[in-house]
């Protein structure tokens, strides 16, 4: 399904006057505070978030998976769905592939299709947490950390193959997430598991092209519950530094124990120049993979406050960050869920851009705790939606992407095109 820009502009017409009024009012209010609304709008217009190829179908749980109908069953259809989201939001300008779920049979044709939708290829993701049909050894007890050398070599070879696939598509980064760990004391030797992982990552790293980066993800638990080999940001940092200057930490917002101060982790990693990117989602208890900003929107704002500060004070020369959504959609239409997540990310980014950093730093020097909180919450409580709508409008996107999605009856159109019982690859 393709939505023409003319249809979007026609739909936007009835909201243009109200948008002009709300944007003008906010612009005037920000001008009085010394904030240039036009600069923020440009930052928002330039900000792009990658959509993972596995998030376009209904997500699964341990108890069941309920198809949304019209799910994309091929990589081509997944890129077309991301094209729909990008057409409406003008924020989803990249795709992140998971191998082997989405191996392109014709990389050049896939590149051309993506380019026709304005989609670039973000990080490619390896998968050694599942057995594949043609593999010789099982990952039941581990992959890069496994006690058996043959298993480790198989996992290394897979990651190297993912690099080759990504290179053919124009990607420039590899994301490695390991499920490796133990559920029972005595199952693994902690030191040897970490040593195996470091050596394996170094071997994978040696295959990176000169202009590539490797992102090392971490997670405290699941699928193993006694120990995880790469359980926290410190271990990820240790491994990244053990690989080289092209290796970085990747922060998934759901991959932390409850009440972890993620914004402090962000600040520390940027100070070290080792923050590679983000997987956005939200959670109440653990790795819930809920819609971004649906549970802890203030934390998301605080994280972006550190990101904006880090990008503006980049003494460690931290490279540009890779942004991606990583969520599982079991109840919502997955495309609507992704649109909501993109909006939440833009909201937090815009709010963080409003923070009066010089005033905040002076309040910190003076130990004025109350003023520090007031400055942050003043930015957080500002309704920045007119800025986001203006950014979309100037890129010929929809003023209200969810309303447009429903107005164009996208899900039912996809069901008519693809059928009711198609199932997308992924978890």
From TrEMBL:
> Sorted alphabetically, which keywords does the UniProt record give?
Isomerase, Manganese, Metal-binding
UniProt KW Metal-binding keyword: yes
Q: What is this protein called?
A: Sugar isomerase
The record lists the organism as Arundinibacter roseus
Note the PANTHER family from the entry: L-RHAMNOSE ISOMERASE
Which segments cross the bilayer? none
Picking any one GO molecular function of the record gives: metal ion binding
**Is this entry keyworded Manganese?**
yes
Q: Which InterPro entries match?
A: L-rhamnose_isomerase, Xyl_isomerase-like_sf
């Amino acid at each position: 399904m393709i939505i023409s820009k003319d249809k979007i502009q026609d739909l936007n017409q009835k909201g243009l006057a109200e948008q002009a009024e709300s944007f003008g009012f906010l612009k005037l209010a920000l001008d009085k505070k010394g904030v240039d609304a036009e600069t923020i709008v440009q930052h928002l217009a330039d900000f792009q978030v990658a959509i993972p190829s596995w998030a376009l179908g209904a997500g699964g749980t341990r108890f069941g998976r309920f198809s949304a109908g019209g799910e994309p069953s091929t990589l081509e259809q997944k890129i077309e769905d991301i094209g729909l989201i990008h057409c409406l939001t003008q924020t989803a300008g990249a795709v992140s592939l998971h191998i082997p779920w989405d191996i392109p049979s014709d990389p050049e044709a896939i590149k051309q299709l993506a380019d026709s939708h304005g989609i670039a290829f973000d990080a490619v993701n390896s998968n050694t947490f599942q057995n594949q049909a043609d593999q010789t050894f099982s990952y039941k007890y581990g992959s890069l950390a496994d006690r058996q050398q043959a298993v480790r070599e198989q996992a290394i070879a897979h990651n190297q193959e993912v690099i080759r696939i990504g290179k053919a598509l124009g990607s420039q980064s590899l994301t490695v997430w390991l499920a490796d760990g133990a559920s029972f004391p005595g199952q693994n030797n902690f030191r040897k598991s970490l040593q195996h992982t470091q050596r394996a990552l170094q071997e994978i790293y040696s295959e990176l092209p000169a202009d590539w980066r490797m992102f090392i993800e971490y997670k405290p638990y699941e699928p193993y519950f006694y120990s995880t080999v790469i359980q926290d940001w410190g271990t990820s940092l240790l491994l990244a530094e053990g690989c080289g200057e092209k290796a970085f930490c990747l922060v998934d917002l759901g991959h932390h124990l409850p009440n972890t101060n993620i914004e402090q982790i962000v600040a520390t990693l940027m100070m070290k120049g080792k923050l590679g990117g983000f997987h956005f989602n939200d959670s109440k208890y653990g790795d819930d993979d809920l819609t971004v900003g649906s549970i802890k929107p203030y934390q998301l704002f605080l994280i972006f406050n550190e990101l904006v500060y880090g990008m503006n004070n980049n003494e460690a020369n931290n490279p540009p960050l890779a942004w991606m959504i990583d969520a599982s959609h079991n109840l919502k239409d997955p495309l609507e869920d992704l649109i909501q997540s993109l909006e939440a990310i833009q909201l937090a980014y815009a709010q963080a851009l409003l923070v009066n950093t010089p005033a905040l730093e002076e309040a910190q020097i003076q130990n004025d705790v109350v003023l520090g909180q007031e400055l942050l919450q003043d930015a957080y409580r500002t309704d920045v939606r007119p800025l986001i709508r203006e950014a979309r409008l100037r890129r010929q996107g929809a003023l209200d992407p969810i309303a447009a999605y429903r107005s164009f009856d996208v899900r039912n159109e996809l069901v008519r095109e693809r059928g009711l019982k198609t199932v997308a690859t992924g978890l």
